[in-house]
Specification:
Length: 118
């Protein structure tokens, strides 16, 4: 299991504490320091069964600078979103937890966290 983690994020810290309490084995990826590649973003999106615009943090300063609120949300637009997320990992919603069995969640609530350790 791997958690895309930002130590400054309270949701990330809560997710880490939950994993610790559940006795889960995981590795921490400080994704702001070790940004995912475009291929990794695509793979995680597939595992999450989400579109890139569903996990972009539109309130981030870089999102406003890039004007993501004006970007299209069609299959043809996916590449632009994915490239931006790989180049600017602060855009990625957190924490993302990927399990060894292929499951993945955006672990922002207890239900999601329970689903990944169960």
């Amino acid at each position: 299991m791997e958690i895309w983690f930002n130590p400054r994020c309270s949701k990330c810290r809560t997710a880490k504490d939950f994993l610790d309490e559940a006795g889960a084995e995981y590795t921490i990826r400080r994704y702001l320091e070790q940004p995912p590649t475009e291929a990794e973003v695509r793979e995680v999106l597939g595992r999450l069964e989400l579109e890139p615009w569903e996990i972009v943090r539109t309130g981030e300063a870089v999102a406003k600078e890039l004007g993501v609120s004006q970007w299209g949300k069609t299959p043809a637009d996916r590449g632009q979103w994915i490239a931006a997320m790989a180049e600017h990992p602060a855009l990625i919603q957190r924490p993302i937890i990927t399990a060894d069995d292929g499951r993945a969640v955006v672990g922002r609530d207890e239900r999601s966290l329970k689903s990944i350790v169960g």
